[in-house]
Design the sequence.
C-alpha cells in the first residue's frame, strides 16, 4: 500500500499538496467522530455564509450529525444567523468543537449547537457589540452605559459643563443601533439554547427559556467580563453560567486527529478565513 504522501500525484503544486493533506486530516476526524465535518476558520465576514452553503451542499451523502470545527475572533452577527439557517436546513444535529477560540459572534454561533466540545485551553468570549474607532475597537455598550450615567446626572441636576458637552456629542441613532445589535445577539442565543442545547433537558419550557436568557445576558454583560477579549474557559461556562460542555480531550484519539488537522490548517490559512468540508476547500 502506498503511503499517504506517496499517493499524492507528483505533478501537483505545493498548494495542491497542502490541500490533499488537509482533506486527509479532515477525513480522519470524520472517521473518528462518525460525523460530517465543516471547518469555519477566521473572521465571520460578509460572504462567509455563501461559502458555508457551498461547502455543505457539495456533500452528496450526509451523516445525521455535523461537527463544526470553529476558530474565529468574531464577525458579523447577521452572517452567523444565516450560517445557522444553512446548517439546520441540512442537519438534525449540529455540534461545535472549539480547539482554541470562538469569540464574540463566534460565541453566538457555538451556542447554536446541540453539543459544544472544548478542552481546558479552549475559550469563548463576551458577545457585547464592538464599535470601530480610530483607536481600534471599543465596547458599544460602554457608550450606552455612559449615556445612561449622564442622563441620570442630568435628572439629579448634577451634570457638569464638560459632561454636557459629552452628552451633546453622542449620536442617539448610533446608540440605538448598538442597543439593537446587543439585543439581537442575546435574542439569538436565548432562542438557540432553548431549541437545541436544552432540547433534552428535563425541565419545563419556561425554565429552559429562563436559563437560556440568563446565559445570554451574562455573556452580554461587558461589566462582568471587563474586556471584550476576555477568555471564558470551559470551567467558567460550566460552574459560573451552568452551561454543559463536553471535553473532547477525554477521547485521546479524537484530540490527536483534531490537533493534527488544526495545526496544518493554521499553517495553510494563516490570518485569512477558510471554509472546508470534504467537498469544498
Sequence:
Amino acid at each position: 500500500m502506498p503511503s499517504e504522501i506517496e499517493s499524492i500525484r507528483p505533478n501537483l503544486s505545493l498548494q495542491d499538496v497542502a490541500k490533499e493533506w488537509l482533506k486527509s486530516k479532515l477525513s480522519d476526524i470524520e472517521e473518528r467522530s462518525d460525523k460530517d465535518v465543516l471547518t469555519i476558520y477566521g473572521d465571520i465576514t460578509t460572504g462567509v455564509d455563501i461559502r458555508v452553503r457551498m461547502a455543505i451542499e457539495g456533500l452528496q451523502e450526509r451523516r445525521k450529525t455535523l461537527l463544526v470545527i470553529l476558530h474565529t475572533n468574531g464577525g458579523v452577527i447577521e452572517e452567523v444567523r444565516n450560517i445557522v439557517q444553512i446548517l439546520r436546513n441540512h442537519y438534525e444535529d449540529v455540534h461545535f468543537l472549539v480547539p482554541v477560540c470562538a469569540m464574540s459572534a463566534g460565541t453566538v454561533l457555538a451556542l447554536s449547537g446541540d453539543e459544544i466540545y472544548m478542552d481546558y485551553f479552549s475559550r469563548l468570549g463576551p458577545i457585547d457589540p464592538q464599535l470601530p474607532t480610530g483607536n481600534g475597537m471599543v465596547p458599544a455598550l460602554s457608550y450606552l452605559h455612559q449615556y445612561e450615567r449622564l442622563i441620570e446626572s442630568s435628572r439629579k441636576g448634577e451634570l457638569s459643563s464638560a459632561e454636557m458637552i459629552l452628552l451633546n456629542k453622542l449620536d442617539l441613532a448610533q446608540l440605538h443601533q448598538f442597543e439593537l445589535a446587543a439585543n439581537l445577539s442575546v435574542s439569538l442565543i436565548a432562542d438557540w439554547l432553548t431549541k437545541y442545547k436544552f432540547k433534552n433537558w428535563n425541565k419545563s419550557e419556561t425554565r429552559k427559556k429562563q436559563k437560556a436568557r440568563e446565559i445570554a445576558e451574562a455573556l452580554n454583560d461587558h461589566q462582568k467580563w471587563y474586556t471584550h477579549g476576555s477568555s471564558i474557559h470551559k470551567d467558567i461556562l460550566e460552574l459560573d453560567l451552568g452551561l454543559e460542555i463536553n471535553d473532547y480531550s477525554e477521547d485521546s484519539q479524537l484530540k490527536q486527529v483534531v490537533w493534527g488537522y488544526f495545526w496544518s490548517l493554521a499553517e495553510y490559512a494563516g490570518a485569512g478565513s477558510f471554509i472546508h468540508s470534504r467537498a469544498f476547500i
Notes: The chain has a mean pLDDT of 89.
